[in-house]
Task: inverse folding
């Protein structure tokens, strides 16, 4: 990929600045585009890694908290495993630093790591609030903040965030998770305005319920009749399609955009129906 000169007003993080002995050595770019995929030890992230690997020609960097599972996925995909806990902003910085050391840059960031918590908001422990916001929202922003300057300098790259229908319409007893995913969508929209005119793309893939360990880990099984859980491979296909065809927003399955659009057109009626039937 061609390298563009730095923007005159590009912000620089402290960790971007050379130290007293110069910048840390970076790997030379191989020519293959580099994709950094978070949450890749299971579920959607693992399916995305498998999908990218099937396309060929990518250098894949996979992140997850479970090193044993992550190593298995990385071996299967011919990828590099970069285990790290993204609930801490310092972990986000360490992940990007390791990615730059290994690959020399990141062309595509797929922010797929996520956790949930189900139950009445008044019963939610404060620590659980902090953890959901840290992983589902703050980590997305911290990772983006660290990879974006280099992407902007090269004037080419793609940021893809895995959202949720919960962020588009709100879901009962998933208030914090819904709020985090709604904020991710707004964050993506704002970035699109900032990056307009560049060759940097921002996408959000919005799945409904997905058949992954997510529900087990949040402590409550999925009990709604609709939407029915879909296979994570369908979300991975949507992620690939969004990157390959530069789509800004993709709902999975596609019909889920209907309630989201309906809520925007007739919010009062939508809330009455949702309160009655949710």
Result:
């Amino acid at each position: 990929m061609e390298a563009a000169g730095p923007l005159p007003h590009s912000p620089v993080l402290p960790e971007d600045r050379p130290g007293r002995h110069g910048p840390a050595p970076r790997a030379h770019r191989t020519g293959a585009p580099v994709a950094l995929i978070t949450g890749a030890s299971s579920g959607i992230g693992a399916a995305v890694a498998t999908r990218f690997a099937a396309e060929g020609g990518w250098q894949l960097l996979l992140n997850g908290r479970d090193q044993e599972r992550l190593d298995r996925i990385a071996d299967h995909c011919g990828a590099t495993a970069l285990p790290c806990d993204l609930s801490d902003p310092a972990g986000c910085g360490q992940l990007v630093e390791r990615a730059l050391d290994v690959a020399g840059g990141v062309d595509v960031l797929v922010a797929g790591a996520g956790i949930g918590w189900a139950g009445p908001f008044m019963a939610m422990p404060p620590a659980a609030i902090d953890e959901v916001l840290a992983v589902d929202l703050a980590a997305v922003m911290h990772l983006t903040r660290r990879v974006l300057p280099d992407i902007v300098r090269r004037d080419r790259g793609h940021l893809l965030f895995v959202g949720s229908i919960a962020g588009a319409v709100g879901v009962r007893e998933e208030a914090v998770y819904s709020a985090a995913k709604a904020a991710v969508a707004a964050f993506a929209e704002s970035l699109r305005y900032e990056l307009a005119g560049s060759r940097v793309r921002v996408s959000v893939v919005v799945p409904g319920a997905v058949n992954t360990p997510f529900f087990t880990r949040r402590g409550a099984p999925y009990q709604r009749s609709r939407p029915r859980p879909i296979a994570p491979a369908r979300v991975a296909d949507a992620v690939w399609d969004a990157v390959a065809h530069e789509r800004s927003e993709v709902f999975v399955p596609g019909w889920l955009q209907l309630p989201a659009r309906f809520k925007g057109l007739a919010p009062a009626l939508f809330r009455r129906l949702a309160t009655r039937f949710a």
